[in-house]
Amino acid sequence: MARKTARPGRTLVLLFLAIAIMFGGIAFAGSWKPELGLDLRGGTEISMTAENSEGGSVPKESLEEAKAIIDQRVNGSGVTGGRVTTEGNDVIKVSIPGTGKVQQETAERVRQTAKLRFRLVACSPQKPCGNAAGSDPGSMIQDPSAGTAPGTSPRAPFGGETVEPAADEKTSGSPSASPSAKPESADDKKKDANSTVAVDDAVEFMRNPPAEWATRYASFTCPAPGSDPVEDLPGEPLLTCDDDGIPYLLTPAVIEGTEIKEASYGIPQQQANYVVTLDFKSEGNKAFAETTGAIAGTGEQFAITLDGKVISAPTADSRISGGAQISGDFTQESAAALANNLKYGSLPLDFPEDGIQTKVIGPSLAGNQLTAGLWAGLVGLILVVIFSVLYYRAMSIVVIGSLAVAGALTYGMILLLSETAGVTLDLPGVAGLIVGIGITADSFIILYERMRDDMREGRSMRVAVDTAWVRARNTCLASDGVSFLAAFVLYVFATNEVKGFAFMLGLTTIIDVLVFFWFTHPMTKLMANLGFFNKGHVLSGMDKRALGTDGQSVNSPSLVGGKA
């Protein structure tokens, strides 16, 4: 079988084409500076004072749970630079890099109490009170394995717009629950109001809403935009609206948002539209199966509310136990927004509006810290270049080229990730980039020293490039594998302050492998075909003096391997 002919020129062309495409995308985005972290730029700080909805002091476990949920909203990937901390027994502080529009949107998302609940629709414009089903169900909840129900053409649950979460719950706008058959104490009423109800009770209310609630729905009008949200108590019915101003009468809640285990979005195989996929914990899964079983195929709706506002009102085509899909005419943005609300929506504590304060903060480090970090990187780079020129002479062209390509790829990736994933560059991240210079230097030193060993054994430079590459490649992959593993462990287990360093270290390690395979090796192979290098010119860096073979020709047949 003939050996595959290497084409280093083609490899280099493909590499530079990829770099050109990357920077073309950056130019299209119009951003040539990476977003800086809190320590280098400052940003917005939100102080939130928690209250226990059931009275009494704030449980430490609930405060930590709320902190974890808010941290996921702000900094789910760990590299956006947001920081969430607790202070005292009832305060959560959130710091977000920057003060622009994106940061303000993030701040608004943080301020939301995000009480997420699942209810049944008793009345709506498409389903007058007492009717079993409506004519326009909206989106549909279905079993992921079942596919889209034939003959359905669901509309977007948000009118084709991205979900805009509601404001914090604060004031009452929901009538009290219907009176029970026997007198209840104040404690019993409070307990019932803060607890979900059985699915059978919710279904009974949905299909036979009390006359009092039907009357209130008939006279209900949606509040004006920006007004205080309605009070959303899980054990009481709810009069509310969606973002399009459609009014709903909803049953008491059957599932709390805290019962959601996982939520995501995407386009399933053999489908063309985005769907939102969700999974429940054990109790939530049981209630969800009972609820979807009760309304399956009837056209009756299952409402999802966030802070008392309807964000989706799908139907169900079958009883669903386990994972489910919410389908509709979602855009990527609306599907992502709904999935994030479902996944990170419910907080175990209340955060009243008068206990939330927002202020602009300056960088936690002096401005000269960034300058010092950049100078440190520049000095390190210059030292590497000086060493390469003195030791490898003309072969240092590949060294300098490798560092330049690695730098271009790294900077381009940081810009793209800043634009698409909210990645920020903090001082630990700068340190990770500086360490990346050493990783890149290690790679070409390994290759060149292997080449010199093979040339001392009598191989020509053209042959030595290929024989040395096999061993150098394995050594480089092993070394980079260890570096990437260290970065991965730090990223997974370290605090957010260290995640920036770990992320940048991992990024530069991956880029080093790409540069080593797609630039350093093919460029060295091209240079080995030039007489200046393969004939051992004194300035080539591969001459007999550099190899320690002063007494004989580099390609002397008396050496092992002979001339090739």
From TrEMBL:
List all membrane-crossing ranges. 372-392, 397-417, 429-448, 469-494, 500-519
Give residue spans, biased composition: Low complexity: 172-183
Where is the protein found, in the record's own terms?
Cell membrane
In Pfam terms, one family for this protein is SecD_SecF_C
Q: Which InterPro entries match?
A: SecD, SecD/SecF_arch_bac, SecD_1st, SecD_SecF_C, SecD_SecF_C_bact, SecDF_P1_head
Positions of region (Disordered): 126-196
Q: What does this protein do?
A: Part of the Sec protein translocase complex. Interacts with the SecYEG preprotein conducting channel. SecDF uses the proton motive force (PMF) to complete protein translocation after the ATP-dependent function of SecA.
The protein's name in its UniProt record: Protein translocase subunit SecD
* Species name: Nocardioides panzhihuensis
Q: Which gene encodes it?
A: secD
